[in-house]
């Protein structure tokens, strides 16, 4: 029989969200037999109730499965979820507020992507998009850092980011790019309508074509000595300003 592709998730949050949202995709859950605390007991009960096969493992095996030692004593082997819908489908089916999209141009660090997904989930973004050739995909590290948001926020890797941004414009979505040399700040714009916030990689910023595609460029005001923020922090500032304005109206 052909082998079934399995992915690895680790950490309490990432595995708990998968058990909650797609329990049938969880093949087996490996737990550290040395952990006997209440959190582990409750998690084991949740995994068993979801119908997952629970396997007792030691720290060495867990670290080998996860690829590192930050597994918290929990590692799951899971089947890949079906591919996400297209961005058009996601926005057509959106039920909470005007479209809000986060675009990441050149973010290749899995920790940054995971943190951006977590912020996007918290701010209610409908999707996160990134170019296929200048971005990191979803992996175990991304899922761990995202604390479950990798399961809840659609992450779409597109062939041509500029083309996708232009397609969003056709849906009357305003493309707001970020740049340290922009004249306006994020707080100067009306962001209550459909918006796509575009962030570049730390140091490099937006690529020129991406920059030229934006309707407007803004900066995050910096009052201290550092010149810029981590991309996930910048995502938090921008997306939550959108959320603040929408709630105010």
Describe the structure.
It is a single chain. The chain is an alpha/beta fold and 249 residues long. It has two domains: 7-78, Ribosomal protein L30/S12 (60s Ribosomal Protein L30, Chain: A); 87-248, SPOUT methyltransferase, trefoil knot domain (Alpha/beta knot, 3-Layer(aba) Sandwich). It has ten helices and eleven strands. A seven-stranded parallel sheet has the order 7-6-5-10-8-11-9. A four-stranded mixed sheet has the order 1-4-2-3. Strand 5 (100-105), helix 5 (110-123) and strand 6 (127-131) form a beta-alpha-beta unit. Helix 5 (110-123) runs parallel beside helix 6 (140-146) and helix 5 runs parallel beside helix 10 (231-248). It is elongated, with a radius of gyration of 20 Å.
């Amino acid at each position: 029989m052909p082998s079934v592709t399995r992915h690895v998730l680790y950490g309490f949050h990432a595995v708990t969200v998968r058990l909650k949202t797609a329990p049938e995709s969880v093949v087996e859950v490996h737990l550290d037999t040395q952990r006997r605390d209440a959190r582990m007991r409750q998690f084991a009960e949740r995994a068993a109730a979801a119908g997952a096969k629970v396997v007792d493992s030691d720290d060495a095996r867990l670290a080998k499965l996860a690829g590192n030692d930050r597994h918290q004593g929990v590692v799951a082997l899971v089947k890949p979820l079906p591919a996400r819908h297209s961005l058009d489908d996601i926005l057509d089916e959106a039920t909470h507020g005007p479209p809000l999209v986060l675009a990441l141009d050149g973010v290749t660090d899995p920790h940054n992507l995971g943190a951006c997904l977590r912020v996007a989930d918290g701010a209610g973004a409908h999707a996160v998009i990134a170019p296929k050739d200048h971005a990191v995909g979803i992996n175990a590290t991304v899922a761990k850092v995202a604390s479950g948001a990798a399961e809840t926020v659609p992450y779409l890797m597109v062939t041509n980011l500029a083309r996708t941004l232009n397609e969003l414009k056709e849906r009357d979505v305003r493309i707001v790019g970020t740049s340290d040399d922009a004249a306006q700040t994020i707080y100067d714009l009306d962001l209550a309508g459909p918006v796509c916030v575009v962030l570049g990689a730390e140091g490099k910023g937006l690529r020129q074509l991406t920059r030229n595609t934006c309707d407007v460029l803004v900066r995050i005001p910096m009052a201290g000595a550092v010149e810029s923020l981590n991309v996930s922090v910048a995502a938090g500032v921008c997306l939550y300003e959108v959320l603040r304005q929408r709630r105010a109206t």
